[in-house]
């Protein structure tokens, strides 16, 4: 009977250790999956949106700079033509970047911010094209005044909308980064706690 009791006790204790070890593995795998999901979202979604928003802003600034150069060299038809071609190439690039950004938007807040970006892009595009038309018509002085008085506001509004999109994604990145760190800390604490419990039981049986 005594041997039976000892055998039963050993079997129960051994089974408990196995359960604790399984729990350690489960907790570790679960937390690692959460960390991987957060990391993947940060890199492939949030960070990608920030980079796209910044790239679009860069192209808008390129367009403004080229238009300014074209106005300065408006007496040279070749310079104007070359500048217009460069602006159009930048515009095409931005259309592609905006399409990629739109495809990544997957939250109500993101959709709201992207709508502001799309509206800003449309208003800026119309005004920019009007400025280009003045240049092509040889109205350099009018084009210069137009650039400073008419194009600046829609350009700034477009850039502000893009900055808001990037800032929102950066906040999400920060939040998800903190959550990933918290998951990592919790995985360590739980794994250590369960490992200590399993070790204590093993020592008690020794």
Descriptive overview:
It is a single chain. The protein is 94% helix and 0% strand. It has helices at 2-72, 77-104, 108-136, 140-205. Helix 1 (2-72) runs antiparallel to helix 2 (77-104), helix 2 (77-104) packs antiparallel against helix 3 (108-136) and helix 3 (108-136) runs antiparallel to helix 4. The protein starts with a helix and ends with a helix. The model has no long low-confidence stretch (mean pLDDT 86).
Rg, nearest Å:
31 Å
Q: What's the overall geometry? A: rod-shaped
* Helical content (DSSP H or I, runs of 4+): over 70%
Q: Low-confidence parts, pLDDT < 50 over ≥5 residues?
A: none
Describe the largest sheet.
Answer: none
| Secondary-structure content class | mainly alpha
SSE pattern, N- to C-terminal: HHHH
Q: How many beta strands in the DSSP annotation? A: 0
Compute the number of helices. 4
What average pLDDT do the residues reach? 86
CA-to-CA gap between the ends?
21 Å
Strand content: under 5%
């Amino acid at each position: 009977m005594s041997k039976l009791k000892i055998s039963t006790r050993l079997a129960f204790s051994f089974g408990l250790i196995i359960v604790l070890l399984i729990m350690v593995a489960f907790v570790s795998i679960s937390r690692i999956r959460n960390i991987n999901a957060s990391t993947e979202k940060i890199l492939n979604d949030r960070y990608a949106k920030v980079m796209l928003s910044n790239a679009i802003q860069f192209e808008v600034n390129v367009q403004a700079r080229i238009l300014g150069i074209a106005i300065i060299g408006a007496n040279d038809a070749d310079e104007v033509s070359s500048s217009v071609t460069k602006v159009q190439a930048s515009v095409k690039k931005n259309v592609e970047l905006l399409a990629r950004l739109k495809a990544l938007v997957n939250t109500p807040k993101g959709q709201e911010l992207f709508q502001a970006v799309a509206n800003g892009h449309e208003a800026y595009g119309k005004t920019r094209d009007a400025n280009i038309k003045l240049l092509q018509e040889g109205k350099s002085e009018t084009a210069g005044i137009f650039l400073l008085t008419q194009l600046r506001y829609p350009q700034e509004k477009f850039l502000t909308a893009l900055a808001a999109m990037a800032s929102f994604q950066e906040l999400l990145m920060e939040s998800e980064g903190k959550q990933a760190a918290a998951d990592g800390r919790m995985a360590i604490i739980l794994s250590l706690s369960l490992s200590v419990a399993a070790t204590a039981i093993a020592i008690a049986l020794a």
